[in-house]
C-alpha cells in the first residue's frame, strides 16, 4: 500500500499530525528530508509538543523556522521528577509571549510502577499546568497512560479550553467523558495492528468529529515499521482509518483536519508546496 495520497485526496483534504516529537535527537541526521517526505505524502501541518524545559527552545525554534510546524509547551509526567517550580515559571513566561497553540505534553502516567509520592508529584505538576492553560486560554495536549479516570477528575476540577487526549486507549465510556469535556482523541500507530481490537473498535465507533490523527514519531511505530516512526507515516494512518471506517480517505482527512484545527485553534494552513 502506498503511503503517498493521491493528488485528488491532497487537493480536497487537510492532513495534520497532531503529535510528533520532531525535536528528538533521533531526527538530527535527517530532520529536513523527513519533513520534506511527509509534505510530499500530503501532510500539511505538524504539532510538536515539548516534554521538559530543556526542549522548550528546540520546539520553539522549529516552529519559528518552519511555517507548517506548531509548538506546544509543557512538562511531560515522566519528566516531573527532574522539574521544579522554576520550570513552571519559565513555562508561564513563554506561554505569555511565545506563539504556542497548546500546553503540552502534560498529564499522568500510571503505566510504570511508581511510589505514592511520585504519583502525587505528577498530579501536582498536572494541576499546575492545567491552571497555566486556563490562565493563558490555551487548550492542552494530554498524555494519559493507564490514568484516564484520574485525568478526567482533574479536568473536571480545572476546566480548560479542551484539546487532545493523545494516543487514546481507554474505554468507550472514558472516551465519551473526554469528548463531553471538549476533547478530541488521538489515533495513530496502535490502530494499525490487527491485534489492537479495542483501539480499532473505538476508531470505528466513535463520532468522526471526535478523532484526530497523530504519529508520535519517532515513537509508536506502526505494524509495518521497525525502529523510528516517521512523519510521512501519517498518510498511511489516514488510509488505514478510512478503511476501518469504510469511508473515503479524503472525507476522513478533511474531517480529522477540521477537528485538529478546532481543538488547537490552528491558524489557516496551506497545503504542502503551496
How would you describe the overall organization of this protein?
The protein is α/β, with parallel strands linked by helices. The chain has a single domain, classed as TIM Barrel (Alpha-Beta Barrel), CATH 3.20.20. It is about 45% helix and about 15% strand. Helix 9 packs across helix 10. The C terminus is likely disordered.
Features of the shown structure:
alpha/beta; 274 residues; globular; eight-stranded parallel β-sheet; TIM Barrel
Order of strands across the main sheet: 1-2-3-4-5-6-7-8
> Distance between termini?
26 Å
Helix count, DSSP H or I runs of 4 or more residues: 10
Strand coverage percent:
15-25%
Q: Which CATH first-tier class would you pick?
A: Alpha Beta
Tell me what the CATH architecture is: Alpha-Beta Barrel
Q: CATH superfamily, please?
A: Metal-dependent hydrolases
The general outline is globular
Number of separate structural domains: 1
- Largest β sheet strand count, sense and barrel closure: 8 strands, parallel
Task: Provide the CATH topology.
Answer: TIM Barrel
In total, the number of strands is 8
Radius of gyration: 17 Å
By helix and strand content, what is the structural category?
alpha/beta
Spans of 5+ residues with little confidence (pLDDT < 50)? 7-12, 270-274
Estimated helix fraction: 40-55%
Question: What value does the average pLDDT take?
Answer: 93
